[in-house]
Amino acid sequence: MGSSATSPSSSISITRDGDWYVARDEETGVTSQGETRAEALANLSEAIDLYNEPIDEEDVSEPDAPWF
């Protein structure tokens, strides 16, 4: 039940997983989901925007978990 849509700069795949649609940007690996295809794509768009935001190095702290 998968399909894919393509834009000039990237390829998006949309699959169905149970009650959810899963949208994935193949170029970046960013993935999101939604209850409808439109919601999954809107959520993916927001996730890609967040992925592309520059990171302020001053706001990033060193992890303190023992497995790091």
From TrEMBL:
User: Where does the record place Low complexity bias?
Assistant: 1-15
InterPro entries with a match to the protein in the record: DUF7387, TTHA1013/TTHA0281-like
Q: Where is this region: Disordered?
A: 1-20
Q: Can you tell me where the transmembrane regions are?
A: none
One Pfam family assigned to this protein is: DUF7387
Q: What is this protein called?
A: Putative nuclease of the RNAse H fold, HicB family
User: Which organism is this protein's natural source?
Assistant: Halobacterium salinarum (strain ATCC 33171 / DSM 3754 / JCM 8978 / NBRC 102687 / NCIMB 764 / 91-R6)
**Lineage summary:** Archaea, Methanobacteriati, Methanobacteriota, Stenosarchaea group, Halobacteria
